[in-house]
Amino acid sequence: MANTFKVVFKGKPVSVEKVGNPAENLYKAVFENRPPLFLKRIQTFMGAIWNSVPEGNQALAGEIGKLIDKYIR
Question: From what superkingdom does this record's organism come (predicted)?
Fold first, then answer.
């Protein structure tokens, strides 16, 4: 898998880059019309979820995270 790849979110391309140390699941999503979003896949008692870093954009992180999952699997 490449370090940088593109996904389509609501009809627009989003550039996604895996950042940080390789053991982390930290990604940076760069949009055309909004600030970048950092998101991380974390384990909870309910299973793995996507969370924004810093917290506050969990809904968007969940949507983009699903696209990342689809790309990497």
Answer: Bacteria
